[in-house]
Amino acid sequence: MTRKQKKILFRIIAAAILLLALHFLPLPDNRWIRLGAYLIPYLLVGYDVIWGGIRKIGKGNFLDEEFLMMIATIGALVIGEYPEASAVMLFYQLGELFQSIAIGKSRKSISDLMDICPESAIVLRDGSEEEVDPEEVEIGEIVLVRPGEKVPIDGEIVEGTSSLNTAALTGESAPVEAAPGTRVFSGSINLTSAIKVKTTSAYEDSTVSKILELVENSTDKKSRSEKFITRFAHWYTPTVVILAILIAVICMIFTSLGFAGSLYRGLVFLVVSCPCALVVSVPLSFFGGIGAASRRGILIKGSNYLEALSEIDTLVLDKTGTITRGVFAVEAIHAGARCGDPAPAISEDMLLDIAALAESHSRHPVAESIVEAHGGHIDPSRLGEVEEIAGHGIRAVIDGQTFYVGNGKLMASIGAAYEDCQLPGTIVHLARVSASSGNALSPEAPVSDPAENAVEYLGHIVINDELKEDSARALSALSRTGVSRIIMLTGDNEKVASRVAEKVGITEYRAGLLPAGKVTEVEALLGNNSHVAFAGDGINDAPVLTRADVGIAMGALGSDAAIEAADVVLMDDHLSRIPEAMAISRKTMRLVKENIIFSIAVKVIIMILGAFGIANMRLAIFGDVGVLILAILNALRAMRVPKSV
Predict the structure, then answer these.
(1) d(CA 186, CA 206)
(2) How does DSSP classify residue 273?
(3) Buried b or exposed e, range 308-331, using 16+ CB within 10 angstroms
(4) pLDDT band for position 488 (50/70/90)?
(5) Cβ contact 276:100 at 8 Å
(6) What separation in angstroms does the CA of 594 have from each of 119, 632, 642?
(7) CATH of the domain spanning 121-216
(8) Pairing mode of beta strands 383-389, 532-536
């Protein structure tokens, strides 16, 4: 509790004690003495409300909650309802205190996120350590990060191994092992030993800076519900003031209540009509939902996107980097001229050995996957001339023999009788120039006559993108969050797309698409009045991310394109974050609707009762402060992640 909140609480307690004392003390039956006695707790608890209302009258912008409370309580004092006037002000301040505490609690999740911002950085300059502001560190400098310190700027480890806590960024509590060559992100906490990091970005472009900017701006983008409440309050307040005056005037003219009774009835109507329950609880619900999502590593750019996410019925997914890891791995090795050849020319181990030698100098992801699958020592002395054939593969001399490693086009061009067994994935074929020929085929002039250059087909290696561990489970969970249709879009061929879709349980997919084709597919879905979310890696999918109702960037840590194009940014690459985000959005919207319906219904009922003289000031106080407190308690539930997640 803040110092200001403690001060208000003290005033509320003191005023409550005075009111109780006045209730039991035998006061003289003198109007001025009673007024003076009850003015003490009234002013003690409400002087700031009165002063605020007076100041707003001078500015011409006074039709708000403070103004309503001021005229309602002053009116009660005028007609001699001194206890009611003090009680209304007391309970109004109690509701305001409760609101302040609730908002502070909701903001805590955001402020905890703000704590990821490092206060300083230790830079190694001219052989010495220099502590500077992170904004002063330049790209390419070496930063020392000791155990317990935050990584100040995005970079790459050049010395040292350690474990990093990335929970504030990704929501994952498990430490991440880091070694030289590992990319690290600002805001991560170094756990075990000192590391040296070479910075790869300026502070203003670093991950922590982008996250803070995104979260700070998230409340600026209002949802339709919030905009409705703002417009509602703008017209509602002057309307109820006019209605309260009309009720008082009509009662004075057409009833025998007299001035005091008629004014009292109008004041009851005025007290219960205060719209603070709606004005407070709806934004608080959205703020709580955004905070709950941020604790799970899901950054939602605004409450408008949180609301849009709750309406999604169709999810479109990119394959690479979303359903799959975007990391290639060897899936199968087939030695022999035909699939299942009982007498292949070389063993599968030898086939992989030759491919790894040929690909050892390439940085292509497919080549790296072959070398990684080999796993053993690669002797460079065995490797002779190596030449890359653009768009086809590699010609390499290994142990004095010429080998060709590449795609089907390369095999066709050299006249090798190849077979890929109709397996989905990237197929890397191997062939060698037979010893009887003694001549290497010229890559400049591929020969199609096998008789002139004897070529022996050795077999092939099947390479596929690895599925993420949680893909199938996450897609299954999406059906429980109200998503009725899931579609996968990919630029890969039909066989690869079919294989991935089958493994994760997707029945609809489109293969062989360029980025423009993905936009066309999403636009077709939008044309059918579907509410569409698209999830992609945020790099080459920026056009379709911006076109969908909600763009979700997967694994966007450090990606400029993702943060710019997407509406929802997932700080790790777990597909399971999508059903979590949808569950949080749907829960938040349910709470918003509950608060709107409950607040309006209770107030309308008590306002009608008050207009006919059935409801008194105590019931009016419940209709105002009681509804406010109940609505806030309900709104705070948005801060908790749903149990289904």
Answers:
(1) 7
(2) T
(3) bbbebebbbbbbbbbbbbbebebb
(4) very high
(5) no
(6) 42, 11, 16
(7) 2.70.150.10
(8) unpaired
Distance CA 339, CA 332 (A): 12
Strands 550-553 and 532-536: parallel
Q: Which of 563, 491, 495, 498 is nearest to 204 (CA)?
A: 563
Angstrom distances, CA of residue 12 to CA of 17, 87, 472, 544: 9, 10, 55, 55
- CATH node for 300-324+469-584: 3.40.50.1000
Catalytic, out of 64, 154, 318, 549: 318
Residue 405 above 90 pLDDT? Answer: yes
Residues 6+ apart with CB under 8 A from 82: 34, 35, 37, 38, 42, 76
Rounded Cα distance between 452 and 264, Å, is 111
CB 266 within 8 A of CB 248: yes
CATH number of 326-467: 3.40.1110.10
Question: For the residues of 300-319, what is the DSSP string, one character each?
Answer: ES-HHHHHHHHT--EEEEEI
Measure the CA–CA gap between 286 and 221, rounded to whole angstroms.
Answer: 11
H helices present in 171-329, as ranges: 207-217, 224-254, 258-272, 276-295, 303-310
CB distance 118 to 208 below 8 Å: yes
The verdict on whether 541 is a catalytic residue reads no
Query: Mean pLDDT lowest for which of 57-71, 279-293, 319-333, 469-483?
Result: 57-71
Average pLDDT in the chain: 81
Write out pLDDT tens, residues 586-634.
999 999 899 889 988 888 898 888 888 888 777 887 777 788 788 888 8
Q: Which token pair is 627? A: 């509804």
Both tokens of 54, joined, read 């007076």
Give phi and psi for 405, each to the nearest 5: -125, 120
Q: Is the pLDDT of residue 431 over 90?
A: yes
Q: What's the N-to-C CA distance of the chain in angstroms?
A: 31
Nearest partner of 88 among 272, 301, 226, 286, judged by Cα: 272
Q: Where are the domains of the chain?
A: 121-216, 300-324+469-584, 326-467
CB of 595 closer than 8 Å to CB of 278 = yes
**Structure pTM?**
0.68
